[in-house]
Amino acid sequence: MRPIAETDRELYRHLYCNERVMRHISQPFSQTQADKAFETSLKAMTRALQHPNIPPSYMLWIIANKTSGVTMGVIGLNWNKATPNSAEIGIMMIPKAQGKQLADEAVTALIEHSKKSLNITEIKASFSTKNLATKRIVKKLGFKQRPSGHPIQEVESRSRESQVEYFLSLVKKPQ
Fold this sequence. Notes:
CATH architecture: 3-Layer(aba) Sandwich
Number of helices: 5
Oligomer: single chain
Radius of gyration: 16 Å
Low-confidence stretches: 152-160
Number of domains: 1
CATH topology: Aminopeptidase
Strand content: 25-35%
């Protein structure tokens, strides 16, 4: 993984304008919407890297093949100001990279990076109940589903699909 850069605009468009990639997230973006979102993501990541002592609002990395450097997707963390030690993870893979456990590897790497370098005690994953691939990944990596009484448990997303929230505590429990 590497931080998003200006050269990643086409990958960003490919992901956010693709109906298959966006099917459990929201309606696909127009190219104009994708470009605007890209600029926002690039600015947020640049600010986070330039000011590591200030809590970030958003960070986005590119997932690339280790040997060829071919870009495969994006993975990011989004912070809520109300809970600064908790960040929500999100990942998008290009269609030809889906189903090959590359997302598992990227999420694992970001969890490790978060433990070592970011001041996060919890990572959340909110996703559509229809997104079985994400559910498989988070359960495999030890995320736990929020209790049924938790307010986020059954909210409606922009795509009108029911959402669930899983979380992973990064705090080591005393032995």
